[in-house]
What does this fold into?
Amino acid sequence: MSGGSGGGSSAPGRFADYFVICGLDTETGLEPDELSALCQYIQASKTRDGGSRFISSATEGENFEQTPLRRTFKSKVLARYPENVEWNPFDQDAVGMLCMPKGLAFKTQADSREPQFHSFIITREDGSRTFGFSLTFFEEVTSKQICSAMQTLYHMHNAEYDVLHTPPTNDKDSCSSTGDYSGTSVSKLQRFNSYDISRDTLYVSKCICLITPMSFMKACKKVLEQLHQAVTSPQPPPLPLESYIYNILYEVPLPPAGRSLKFSGVYGPIICQRPSTSELPLFDFPVKEVFELLGVENVVQLFTCALLEFQILLYSQHYQRLMTVAETITALMFPFQWQHVYVPILPASLLHFLDAPVPYLMGLHSNGLDDRSKLELPQEANLCFVDVDNHFIELPEDLPQFPNKLEFIQEISEILMAFGIPPEGNLHCSDSASKMKSLRACDLVSDKRNGNIAGSPLNSYELLKENETIARLQALVKRTGVSLEKLEVREETSSKKDLKIQCDEEEFKIYQLNIQIREVFANRFTQMFADYEVFVIQPSQDKESWFTNREQMQNFDKASFLSDQPEPYLPFLSRFLETQMFASFIDNKIMCHDEDDKDPVLRVFDSRVDKIRLLNVRTPTLRTSMYQKCTTIDEAEKSIELRLAKIDHTAVHPHLLDMKIGQGKYELGFFPKLQSDVLSTGPASNKWTKRNAPAQWRRKDRQKQHTEHLRLDNDQREKYIQEARNLGSTIRQPKLSNLSPSVIAQTNWKFVEGLLKECRNKTKRMLVEKMGREAVELGHGEVNITGVEENTLIASLCDLLERIWSHGLQVKQDRSCTAFVLEDRASVYSASTQIWAFQTTRRPTLHKGKSALWSHLLHYLENRQRKTTSGSFSTSGILLDSERRKSDTSPAMSPLRISLIQDMRHIQNISEIKTDVGKARAWVRLSMEKKLLSRHLKQLLSDHELTKKLYKRYAFLRCDDEKEQFLYHLLSFNAVDYFCFTNVFTTILIPYHILIVPSKKLGGSMFTANPWICISGELGETGVLQIPRNILEMTFECQNLGKLTTVQIGHDNSGLYAKWLVEYVMVRNEITGHTYKFPCGRWLGKGMDDGSLERILVGELLTSHTEVDERQCRTPPLQQSPSMIRRFVTISPNNKPKLNTGQIQEAIGEAVNGIVKHFHKPEKERGSLTLLLCGESGLVSALEQVFQHGFKSPRLFKNVFIWDFLEKAQTYYETLEQNEMVPEENWQTRARNFCRFITAINNTPRNVGKDGKFQMLVCLGARDHLLHHWIALLADCPITAQMYEDIALIKDHTLVNSLIRVLQTLQEFNITLEASLVKGIDI
It folds into this structure.
């Protein structure tokens, strides 16, 4: 976290570790900064017209299009004091690069030379940070050699410019034209920026810098500005500069936690204050500036991207703006911490880092001339691009909304308006930095035109009433019951008048605004995660083995946590719980047991959460989406105010040092060469070093106890904590040391290893979750994945694939529209000829789309088409499965051919998907559902020529071993069934292929009636489809039905031979390849079987074998039509499977249990209720066994069905009613109900047969919670005595009572029946 731990534990509490001077080394002269020059050259050559020639210069990387004043030259660290401190070793390369990220800059007297301040951050290998603050100003170049070198460069440049821009002419007038041309070019140059040694004064940039363990930005800025002022003001400072620098390095301590400190600058006192351990951590950048630059809406969107660990690229002309935005966004994340690459200022020589295939937060300096379209980035699918200066943000696709976003934005807006900042940002502030400086809170207060904010806050509200953002918010927030009319514009507290604040008004306002905004953000997380501790899974084994198996361990019960959250929060939270920052936060929680030992950030957060729990009367786990506003602002403000009113510590004043006579003199306008002998070492003893010693010992003691507590030695523990922290993140910050090819290669190698590790972890996590669920369906264990979570995991897999495909991608040079050309050609494809009208043979251009994966797929397609057209390519496995289905002798469906290109076609044909990123994701989902992801990607990467053209040598996709392992990990997804395509694209049109298999033995070919079919799935049904006579196979298209559940099949009973014995029906989704089998095995025809003309069949999904494989599937089917069993019962009563009463009771128990479990699952996760009612071991089948038990054998040649018995019982009750012999009222209602249902079912226009009617009755009885009443009714009915033997279950009162009790458990569930089960019945 910003301002978090600085140097190691042994660091004495010094305010600053180093004072550094960087600039031009006159000894070595002008050295071109090759890497950044090369980057500039690439940029320039992109913007230049493709026709212009480019003459490479002798000096590598020098670019003659750039005038010498605009070129980059190496800056050096000229001096640093002290040489080194052990707790924070000096990193010369990093400091040199970050003090002057673009190298030296030269200017003449004609240019503006305002000093520029910026801060930077150096992240060490172990994740700890050091802060740097630098002030860059311009000094006159006194070295004659440098001036004449610059003049020479100009002569060379002008000569080159003439050669390059000479128009091609005939020999005759070439001289004159050249002369003219050079004249114009020189005049152009003079107009632009030239340098003439006789006329111009040359200036070069120089920089002074403080390196500190903590980020006191405001104080450091004042120190540096006052030092610079001392050098440029005509009056010399009171003491030599060495005295002030010595003072800040050795005599000013860090303020202790919760205290304030005052020390002396050259011209005035400087105050800094540090929050106590119970407050939000130190943060010293102006939040105000971020909201002015971006506006609330953009800040919240950027904040959401950062929380979900997208790649974030900030873009600005001002280094300090990059730093302010980056630090603010990471500080607002409290209590979470950014875990990945964090480089708020990316030096020009490190641009290749934008290629990093990991989440990053980086800042890129713009020259102010190029717009966004010129910026070529290798990876854009998961990128959030923020153009800070132009108030513009480009978001990644499908970014979920931050919970309660509207109310959150309103709460922030109210605070901003109280400080006179418009919520949509201050668009003018991006015009120039100078304007920015003038627009400060204290000016606003004194400026009457601004509504005199301090005096009467409500005026500012009136002023802002016109404001469009507020108007929009007002409309949106009305529904939450909050009115903006009662907008709180906070008055200044009167206590201000009593307390004399030591810092100036403007600074105090910045402190106030910072803490108010930070408290509002922190409050969101304390509300959202108020009960997070309940869901932390504490490890059962000792710490050491927990560390060793950390990657396999689940540390947080995500499913239970999510099931407690309000529905609108889920899209955001389910993704946030998967981030590295959340995992590290929970790891931290597990590692810190006792209070002393807790991470300070965690301690603050936990104490806030405890307060909320005490305040909330409602039970901690019951969550509501009611927006809770922040209540901690006043308290937090008060703490800061008290510290600033009463300064706790005052440092030693600067004093004369023991310097030789004549030292310490300096020349006006030049920063002097300081006396290193006095600055290299501090005082031998110092009162505050002593004062800090006990605290250090206490800290060491505590660490010792902690180590014993963990039974690990310190190094081991450090290593483990670091490993836990680094899980999933390979590199925090690029090494800023020498950038030889080998270092770059090594960095890339780390990325490749990191990607592979991430892939392994992701696949494993997804499999464990998925297997867990399937095990539950087989009756083992507990369910622990929800639909939201599965979707999140798949989305994060898509992100990983995009990152892998963008690693080492050749940066797009020709932004052609091939992608779109291909899309159009896809529609020109003619199935009859199977030839593509495609002749071009260009080198592959990188497609302009944000998805590297889809772009690669399109190239592959293009290559295949070219080969097909030229005839050099075998068509196997690629082209459409031609019409092989007409007269296949075997009843099985012909298999779908596996085709990568066909799957791409399917995706291209989905009009709902508009973007390349969306297409790539849909293609990944489809391939996963078809269990072909690994195979397709292997095929895609088998085109080595293409991969070589598209990717640099170091790219992940060109590392053969890693690529093989990666594909092998993806292969493991084939072990489980995903429906991640079917369940997401619910509105698309899908072709379905139907095959009806009649019994061969019993003359199916003589069948004369007109058959029809109706298919139902979880998402809808087809309606009745007429099947042409004698056609048993057909394809039709309809909106996605989801997983298929039932098929209704029947005929119109016309013709001479209207009897049909159907073995089974098969239906296949032609896009996903899922095939369902609906067994039937019964007759459809009057006078056959139970006289049914239509049947409802329940389906099972056949396990897919990607290869054609006719073996029986080894896994038990999901569910099956029960018709086969009934057929035995009714056609040949002698074969009926004799189940004893125990087995029948067990079957009933199982069936009811299945339904109960179904309703205990989260709604999105419930399977098909139809299967549980009508499937093989469903409720209908179990009750059928109850009524079959002890049923008296019918006479020869006559089948008696359960329905016959039920009709007789109905007749009996109706005659009882007529004779008015009714025992009791309750009983009478039941009997009436029973008769009403039987009548309704008998009157239905559908010809479902007797068993079909029984099925309807059971389903309706379950829906209306009447089954147990009917069982009781029938057990007492005299008809039962006639039609059942004495041993029958229905005659045994004990068994009937237990059956009634089991069926009563269904009463608490609201059973909704699929339309196909009760069509035509209006009860």
The first strand starts at residue 18 and ends at 23. The first helix runs from residue 34 to 47.
